[in-house]
Amino acid sequence: MLVIIKNSYDEMSKEAAKIVADRLRKKPNLVLGLATGSTPIGLYKELIRMHKEEGLSFAKVTTFNLDEYIGLPRTHDQSYFYFMWENLFKYIDVDRRYIHVPDGMANDIDGHCEWYENEIKHLGGIDLQILGIGGNGHIAFNEPGSSLGSRTRIKTLTEQTVKDNARFFKSMEEVPKFAITMGIGTIMEAKEVILMANKTNKADAIKSAIEGPVTHMTPASIIQMHRKAYVVIDKEAASKLTHQFRG
User: Fold this and answer.
1) How far apart, in Å, do the first and last CA atoms of the chain sit?
2) What is this structure's pTM?
3) Which of 87, 94, 150, 229 is placed for a possible disulfide with 183 were both Cys, Cβ 3.0 to 4.6 Å?
4) Considering all CA atoms of the chain, what is the largest pairwise distance in Å, rounded to the nearest integer?
5) Which residues are catalytic?
6) Do 139 and 131 touch, CB atoms closer than 8 A?
7) What is the pLDDT of residues 76-116, one digit of tens each?
8) Which domains does the chain have, with CATH numbers?
9) What CA–CA distance (Å, rounded) separates 56 from 13?
10) To the nearest 10°, the Cα dihedral for 37, 173, 217, 111?
11) Which residues of 114-125 are buried (b: 16+ CB within 10 A; e: fewer)?
């Protein structure tokens, strides 16, 4: 595990983008795992800039997103497919046939989760997975208490997560209560991972994840066991670390 601390959100976003671009230039048909949320937006903006100004091509890339709400069509402005389209996909030359975001409207959700796992395996696994981290240490929708060996599956969202998400919807009744998420075991099979975090409200979670014990109560702590993980954070998210630079 390599912890990379940058002075600002912009700097950490560019650092993460450099890693992604390097892997993509070495392997044009990269299998890339993607995350939603506010944290990776800066990374996506930098990748878009690299595509437009430096010719970085995504034409042969296959993408897999971590999660999606159950019950939201892809056209809904709070769906994760919509998020990815508005923040990355429509600005780069990715082939839409190679985009994978869990289908929250699938008729057979369990069957769809199994298919998603098989698609990842069929392509030889994810080469590089982007991750964010929740304030309670969750990754994707793997909340505290999730099995460290879990696979892609349905997850019931915690009451706190539902409350946190309510600000994005017109009413509490509209907030999805279930989601499809990659499991922690699935995430850990990626050849490389980049965990990103910024701001002081993630400082406790980052400290627990990279300096605390590996435990299912801090799902992100499993990253300590990954053979090739990068933690790219700003100085605010790193503010509670005992050791400021580690490898």
Assistant:
1) 6
2) 0.95
3) 150
4) 48
5) 67, 136, 138, 143
6) yes
7) 999 999 999 999 999 999 999 999 999 999 999 999 999 99
8) 2-234 (3.40.50.1360)
9) 16
10) -80
11) ebbbeebeeeee
